[in-house]
Design brief:
With about 70 residues, the protein is an alpha+beta fold. It has a domain of about 45 residues. The protein is built from two helices and two strands, in the order E-E-H-H.
Length: about 70
């Protein structure tokens, strides 16, 4: 069983957590999956618009450069 260690301030309030790397990696994977689901849901709310493949690649490249 894995355990999490909490770091507290001088009043006993939890301010940090130390967790096993496997648990940390699992949390990261779950977060990435949730981000993918949110992106999918956002995309599905938009009106579908079909564009030529090359135009789509160009728009993706422009979008990435803005970030």
């Amino acid at each position: 069983m894995s355990s999490t260690t909490f770091i507290t301030d001088n009043k006993g309030r939890k301010i940090s957590a130390v967790l096993p790397i496997k648990k940390y990696e699992q949390l990261l994977e779950e977060l990435e999956e949730l981000e993918d689901i949110k992106a999918y849901d956002k995309a599905m709310k938009k009106k579908l618009e079909f564009v030529p493949l090359q135009q789509a690649f160009k728009e993706i490249d422009i979008s990435r450069k803005k970030k």
